[in-house]
């Protein structure tokens, strides 16, 4: 993945810190702020948590990354991609993408509630196949 091109495509300056953030998200898939901060400090020891949050929010503002709110857990972040939902294992915490376009659910919800909704996030919790074997 060409991170510099991806950042410029979203009208963002391709700083080394932003490219490292995108690289970590690309390789880990879903990552919470603590794990991201710990990993990013290995490359940029002087980066502050405030700077990390500022970069995260800047990239969220241009829809380059998105946050995944998981009930009872820390928010995770991922690179924005096609519409999908998530499944999460209650035992080991694994979080995976599943193909699903939630836009039909969003439209139906707006039709029923008359809300003007602009976002839908689906996290289905259960037990993964590996944990089921234990």
Secondary structure: elements and pairs:
Elements: H1 3-9, H2 16-28, E1 31-32, H3 33-43, H4 49-61, E2 65-68, E3 76-79, E4 84-89, E5 95-99, H5 103-113, E6 123-126, H6 129-133
Parallel strand pairs: 4-6
Antiparallel strand pairs: 1-3, 2-3, 4-5
Task: Summarize the structure in short.
With 134 residues, the protein is of the alpha+beta class.
Describe the structure.
With 134 residues, this protein is α+β, with helices and mostly antiparallel strands. It is built from 6 helices and 6 strands. The protein is globular and about 45 Å long. The termini are far apart. The mean pLDDT is 92.
List the strand order in the largest sheet: 1-3-2
User: Mean pLDDT, rounded to whole units?
Assistant: 92
Q: In whole angstroms, how far apart are the ends?
A: 36 Å
- Largest beta-sheet characterization: 3 strands, antiparallel
Cα-atom radius of gyration = 17 Å
User: What is the overall silhouette?
Assistant: globular
**What structural category do the secondary elements indicate?**
alpha+beta
Please tally the helical runs, counting DSSP H or I stretches of 4 or more residues.
6
Strand content: 15-25%
Fraction of residues in helix: 40-55%
The H-and-E topology, N to C, reads as HHEHHEEEEHEH
């Amino acid at each position: 993945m060409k991170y510099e091109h991806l950042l410029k495509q979203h009208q963002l300056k391709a700083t080394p810190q932003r490219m490292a953030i995108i690289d970590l998200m690309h390789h880990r898939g879903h990552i919470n702020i603590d794990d991201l901060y710990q990993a990013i400090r290995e490359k940029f020891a002087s980066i502050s948590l405030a700077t990390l949050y500022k970069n995260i929010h800047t990239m969220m503002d241009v829809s380059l990354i998105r946050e995944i709110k998981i009930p009872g857990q820390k928010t995770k972040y991922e690179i924005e991609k096609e519409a999908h939902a998530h499944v999460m294992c209650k035992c080991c915490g694994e979080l995976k993408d599943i193909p699903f376009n939630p836009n039909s659910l969003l439209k139906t919800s707006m039709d029923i509630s008359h809300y003007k909704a602009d976002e839908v996030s689906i996290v289905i919790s259960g037990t993964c196949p590996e944990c089921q074997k234990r």
